[in-house]
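Hi L.,

You mentioned the student needs an example of a multi-chain input paired with its predicted structure. This one should do, with 265 residues in total across all chains.
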Amino acid sequence: MIAQGPIVLVGCGRLGSAILEGWLLTGTVAAEDLIVLSPSEKPAAEAARTRGARINPPLETLTQARVVVLAVKPAIWRDVMAPIAPFLNDRAVILSVMAGVAAPTLAEGIGGWPIVRVMPTTGVSRGRGVASVWSADARAEAVGRELFAPMAETVVLKDETLMDAATAVAGSGAAYFYAFTDALARAGEAAGLDAATADVLARATLRSAADSMGDDALDALIGRIASPGGSTRAGLDALDQNERLKTMLIDTVAAAVRRNREMGA
Ligand SMILES: NC(=O)c1ccc[n+]([C@@H]2O[C@H](COP(=O)([O-])OP(=O)(O)OC[C@H]3O[C@@H](n4cnc5c(N)ncnc54)[C@H](OP(=O)(O)O)[C@@H]3O)[C@@H](O)[C@H]2O)c1
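Structure written out for the whole complex:
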């Protein structure tokens, strides 16, 4: 539980709502320690209000803020922060979940507060997200871990530039798995299954594989299904013929990293 001073969530859109729901679900932040700033009414904020969170209180209440979480679109953060910044105390930490806005840019626009960048997935709403944390400041990094580790598998990056790679793997990764699942279903169709049956089988397989993954080494997990000379081994050999699976994913992640860099430039 985070103590001492409110946590201010600025922006309650898709990600902001997921963060708010995750905090309350996991008890990471008590509702009475939450301040939410949102131009329009949001179901997640209203649900938090019924539990004691303050929604759009006077900006004077921000003087005690311990953390300000910036969850608005990158294009507007300067305008959003301008009226808030004069009320923040010296001990406040700025936590940005905005993609592609680098810490030096934030520091230049906001001022002297420690900054931590976190790149979470919306799975945090169910307490099952993924989050990458980076900060040049140890206290700010600790705040990032404290606020996200209870609702996300959290990694701390050594260098801010790795945020683009982490986003390309974890932020985009669910879409890659969905695309793979669709391709698997279509391959099942090509092998004679009807489309609906192939869909059910492919989706259920992804869910079941995720459920049984645990923390075992991936090679060991594969080895449990693919016995030498068996059908799964034959399929895997075809899948990674000439290392094409690895090559394809290196290209996939590299393309997403490039795009992340272009958008952040
Ligand atoms: N969505 C994701 O999966 C994801 C993942 C990682 C990082 N991110 C980052 O998270 C940030 C938000 O993304 P999103 O997908 O949640 O976008 P979004 O759904 O558009 O949410 C942005 C929210 O900002 C609010 N807002 C606008 N002006 C504001 C102000 N002056 N004060 C407070 N709130 C204000 C908007 O309110 P109204 O709705 O009332 O206009 C909107 O709800 C982005 O920077 C993005 O890069 C998102």
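You could point out the following to them. The chain has a mean pLDDT of 95. The radius of gyration is 21 Å.

Best wishes,
N.
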